[in-house]
N5,N10-methylene tetrahydromethanopterin reductase
Amino acid sequence: MSQPRKKVLLNAFNMNCVGHIHHGMWTHPQDRSTEFTSLKYWLDLAKTLERGLFDGLFIADILGVYDVYQQGIALTAKESIQLPVNDPLMLVSAMASVTEHLGFGVTANLSYEAPYPFARRFSTLDHLTDGRVGWNIVTGYLDSAARAMGQTELLSHDRRYDQADEFLDVSYQLWEGSWEDDAVVADKQRRLYADSGKIHPVHHRGEFYQVEGYHLSSPSPQRTPLLFQAGSSARGLQFAARHAECTFVSGSTPQATRAQVDKLRKAAQDAGRDPDCLKVFMGVSVIVAPTEREAKEKQQEYLRYASPEAGIAHFSSSTGIDLSQFGLDEPIQSGPTRAIESVSKAYSGWTRRQLLEQHSMGGRYSLIVGNPSQVADELLKWVDESGIDGFNLTRIVNPQSYIDFIDLVVPELQRRGRYKTEYQPGSLRAKLFNNDRLPSTHPAARFRR
């Protein structure tokens, strides 16, 4: 008997800024990205995504500025390449107040955080959202952020992951072990809010962190937020295998992506976890219209507003290489980098002309263009052939890209039985894994009482 084909999971991929992935598109007449400082803009988006039964709104973030290309921020400022960028955590409780089910995956850079107050912020959000918050774990890759934080340069790539491992261990102790499940009594007659015998201090003495104290928040619905992570280097893969519940991949073909997915699941299994404990998402961009001809016309229209140069300026900081110094057809040579190691290696030998062509829509994400049936065909091909679980859908024109997808593609996927027709109850983790809490095979479980 054949296994039922998996339903597609879907996050909207966005950022608390003007230019996120598809640079230059903020100039399109229908794009509302310049309203990102308005709360109404985010509340409208959250309600739109819940109408489309999206699993989550995944909010990227960056500390530092893109100042590698042309060795400055002239183009970064001109095209608003993730500058200015506001704090993503501030948005979540407001959006949760106008939705019931939509999850929120929030990026936060642990390199410049202290675990003790950080754990409280996420516990607070988990309480206020009824367990709908996730944390995208990043360690940063910009020297500009390190300098802004008083450091001379970033820690080396692998050392950042060493620090991250310890940060997670401290956080798990706070989230999972400090308060017992029944520590809160809230008995007015006995004047007993919490039982002090069931609240335990954390004692941690490590290489990067020394923490002694009680977690400031009582247990939230998920305790530990749903854990996202995107590293694809050898060290990043090791980190994901130990900690991540949701991971992100990119690939040029379903076959190449399948190799990444298989490697991730094997690494999780080797770490003592169920290989199915990982939900794997791929970044994708979609241009859809009622007919193929209309979709292609829309694509040509969008190309007039996109900025390929802004796209490779963003890419320069991802690699740590000033791509403006190379001729159009001169092969780009990469060397040791403190930026995103996997990206730098993958594009070594490319030319700037090739990168400009790849970034014709202002970004390098896989692009699907067509009518609803064609888009659904392509999405399901990726899921069925690569083994991914779903997609991070980028915005091209915001919010029109999401509205088009919801009105045209979602009904097609539902018609084929490959997308939910209603939300399941419970927390974000429960919706994805049928359990509010991390499983016993996760390293966080050893800190539970």
Notes: The two ends are 42 Å apart (CA to CA).
